[in-house]
Amino acid sequence: MMFKLMVALKISVVNGDLTSDDVMLFLKVEKDCPFSKWMNEKVWLNAIQLTRHGFGPGQNPLFRDLTDLLQRNDIGWRKWFDESEPENCPVPEYEDRICVLRNLGPFIRLALVRSLREDRVGIACAQFIDQQLGSKFTAPITDTIFEVYQESGARKPVLYLLSAGTDPTNMIDELAKRKKKFPTDKVSMGEGQEKVAREKNNAAFISGGWLVLQNCHLGIDYMNEVEETLMKTPEIHQDYRLWITCEITSRFPIGLLHLCIKVTQEPPAGLKASLHRTYTTMVTQETLDKVDHEKWRALLYAISFLHSIVQERRKFGPIGWCVPYEFNNSDLDASLLFLEKHLSSTIMVGTPLSWNTIQYMVAEVQYGGRITDDLDRELFITYAARWLCDEMFKASFAFNSYNSDYQYKIPEGLDMNVYRDHIETIPPVESPLIFGLHPNADITYRLKEASEMLTTIIETQPKDTNASVGKSMDEQVKDQCSDHLEKMPPDLVEEVFRAQIHRKDGLKGSNERGFKAPLNIFLFQELQRLQHIIGIVRMSLENLIMAIEGTVVMTVDLLEDSNCVFDGRVPKRWTHDASGAEISWLLPTLGGWCTGLTDRYTQLIWWLEHGRKDWKSFWMTGFTNAQGFLTGIRQEVTRQHKNQNWALDDVVTHTEVLPLEFADRAHPPEEGQNIHGLFIEGARWNRLDGRLEESEAKKLQMNMPVIYITAVEVKSKGNANAGQSYPPLNAAVYKYPRRNDRYLIFRLFLRSGDHHPHHWKLRGVCLVAQTD
User: Fold this and answer.
1) Position 188 in a domain
2) According to the UniProt entry, where is the signal peptide (predicted)?
3) Which of 61, 275, 344, 537 is 20 to 30 A from 243 (CA-CA)?
4) Structural domain of residue 282, as residue ranges?
5) pLDDT at 623
6) Distance between CA 627 and CA 623 in Å, rounded?
7) Which residues contact 685 (CB under 8 A, 6 or more apart)?
């Protein structure tokens, strides 16, 4: 899709229908201020950018009055905005004008959808390609292995470029049986396998056999030899075929690449396609009849369903899995093998199924062996606990616990056709609810897909503009650098703020001052880090301006910075040091990053100059080392309780989400600190009742109230869900939406409300300090 879109846009530019500025308008976004209840700040700023842009060589300012119309026809635009398929609906105020512009119209509609409904960009791009290039470019590819074989030849090998979850070996074997070439010779490349591959290849040359070379990215040296052999061997049996599987690598010989038929296989998309593949390639009639136990076939289907669910959940990004694990058929094979042995042993001994054993072996051993993140492990255990239990054998059991037109049940039967017919009844497009996710997760998935596509296309765009149309790239970059320099906060002088901290008060009710107070040390370290970043950014911008003016040499690093500024991205040198370690915060847009720099400076300077006595709540996102802030709080509270003989090793962080009436405290707390600036994903927080509830439609993240953080002794830690029906959810707080242990700040208990914590774990509920 990405490649086709790039081709379609390039054709339109070469034809003179679009300009490079039109394309950049589609690719870039702005971000900053809110507009109304139904339109967020990002969409509003995109709308403003549309009003400033003229489309095509004639610079048609079609949307110059867009912001006025949005405010005047709020109901009409909101209706279009809330449509499930806005790309197919008439655009308020503009539909007739868009239809009249035959060449520009499709792109204008695409640009509008991209600006106001980014989650529909993928579908809108497919429609644009369809209109510009033809429907055959958007139709699904249906080339079978037989068609690939017909195109191949003795000197024309077939190269399969491997992707996650795909393996063409079974298809090759099926074709070989039909062509009387089975069994085929197979060599899995690796150290020492070149000799084996060479012998089998030479034999196949003479006999006309088929050879499958697997994982050839591990045998690149032999691939060079294969190229030479195919080119120079005078006589080759016409029935000879070479099949190569290889991961994408730049070391693959170009000559052999040109000789080969290149084939890519994406894993089947969707729950139905994944189950269909399992019950056509892995589960056979022999598998169904393998164990003489009345529960074998139901368990077989349940494990296969679980396998498809955990594979498909990856598409939802971090809200699906913190780490996108490459679960594959070997995990399913191992689970089924264990299940077969476990059932066989229960038949022999006459004991019932041990669900604890089954759940542990599947969730923590077979699949869990790949899992590296604690939250992901808890998620998989939750799936196993809900689906691998006695309930699954009841007639009322369904994998979906919500009301739906389709119930995902376990089919009953002895014949394979029963299972395949049942799989055919599954909806081709599944709801996120079957994964345990909120319907909003579908928007998350589409936004992730659109963002990755647009980012990749931006990186491929030429970094120059037509001088007759506007400023050159260098002029634009220079202007942006000058603008950012003007907005930069002043330098922080270490001697000055060190002296200020020496005079600062420390703990409440304590004589400790200056650097004896833990949070004062934390403040000093944060100021040091911020000044280091300010120095890097200021030097980078100044050097970039001088390089454009010709005063200094334009180095490779400066050229990379220039491209980033032009694209609106944050230069890597501002966020990571030479070793690749993170030194600042990560944001996708340059404007948002620079705003964050100013906000962080403002918070630290206020703390430095006014102290904590009037500071009601700290902006958690503004700290480079948020974990250090929590450690400082634990140290201070422990010292405040030294009369009770508290030890730092015996205390843990304790949190409370403040009720509405305490959110605006007149004074900071006597112990601990209040924090704000966190967002909740996967659910929303009921501020009145103080508990978790389902997310609102199309609201992916919502603000959390002020949270009180202190420290308590482990033995005195109370129940965070006292008086509630279900135990609390132990939710993670991450620095960024990209959830992994590296960005985990701390964990806190949230009241579960009307649902068991399992429900919220499957929803992917967590708190994040940043929404981008």
Assistant:
1) yes
2) 1-16
3) 275
4) 271-437
5) 95
6) 9
7) 657, 691, 692, 693, 702, 704, 705, 750
Structure confidence at residue 660 (pLDDT): 73
pLDDT for residue 268: 62
CA of 1: how far to CAs of 123, 129, 675, in Å?
10, 9, 44
Are both 45 and 174 inside the same structural domain? no
Look up the CATH number of the domain holding residue 512. 1.20.1270
Residue 165's pLDDT is 58
Handedness of CA 360, 166, 123, 462 (dihedral sign): positive
Distance CA 633, CA 640 (A): 11
Distance CA 345, CA 575 (A): 57
What sign for the dihedral angle of Cα 722, 724, 725, 726? negative
Low-confidence ranges of the chain (pLDDT < 50): 31-35, 465-469
654 with 760, same domain: the answer is: yes
SS3 448: helix
Dist. CA 118–CA 449, nearest whole Å = 10
pLDDT at position 467 is 42
685 shares its domain with 556: no
459, part of any domain: no
pLDDT tens digits along 40-51: 777 888 888 888
In a domain, 313, yes or no: yes
- Measured CA to CA, the distance from residue 632 to residue 709 in angstroms comes to 11
Last residue of a domain, one of 556, 589, 615: 615
Residue 410: Cβ within 10 Å count: 21
Domain annotation covers residue 13: yes
Residue 675 pairs in a beta bridge with: 618, 707
Q: Say how many CA atoms lie within 13 Å of 510 toward its Cβ.
A: 21
Burial class (CB in 10 A: 0-12, 13-18, 19+), 657: buried
Strand runs labelled E in 224-334: 241-246, 261-264
Question: What count of other Cβ atoms lies within 10 Å of the Cβ of residue 716?
Answer: 9
Are 341 and 481 within one domain? no
CB 455 within 8 A of CB 300: no
Report d(CA 269, CA 314) in Å as an integer.
11
Closest to 120 in 3D by CA, of 427, 457, 452, 445: 445
Same domain? For 567 and 621 the reply is no
What CATH number is associated with residue 220? Answer: 3.40.50.300
Between CA 291 and CA 298 the distance in angstroms is 12
Q: Which of 105, 138, 171 is the last residue of a domain?
A: 138
Domain shared by 477 and 593, yes or no: yes
| Angle formed by the axes of helices 440-460 and 121-133, nearest 10° | 50
Residue 615 contacts residue 678 (beta carbons within 8 Å):
no
Q: Indicate whether 668 and 539 sit together in one domain.
A: no
CB 372 within 8 A of CB 378: no
Beta-carbon contacts of 73 under 8 Å, excluding residues fewer than 6 positions away, are 92, 93
Q: Are 63 and 9 contained in the same domain?
A: yes
Handedness of CA 514, 516, 518, 523 (dihedral sign): positive
**How far is it, in rounded angstroms, from Cα 721 to Cα 729?**
9
Distance from C-alpha of 190 to C-alpha of 198, rounded to nearest angstrom: 13
**Residues, the chain:** 772
CATH number at residue 662: 3.10.490.20
Domain count, the chain: 5
- Residue keyed to tokens 């195109």: 151
Strand residue runs (E) in 65-184: 158-161
Question: Tell me, what DSSP letter sits at residue 492?
Answer: P
The angle subtended at Cα 141 by Cα 178 and Cα 149, nearest 5°, is 30
Q: Please check whether residue 438 is in contact with residue 279, taking contact to mean a CB–CB distance below 8 angstroms.
A: no
The answer to whether residues 382 and 376 touch, using CB atoms and an 8 Å cutoff, is no
Q: What is the pLDDT of residue 349?
A: 79
Q: Is there a contact between 587 and 772 (Cβ–Cβ < 8 Å)?
A: yes
Which is it for the CA torsion 225, 231, 235, 236, positive or negative?
Answer: positive
Calpha distance 500→314 (Å, rounded): 50
Q: Phi and psi dihedrals of 236, rounded to 5?
A: -130, 135
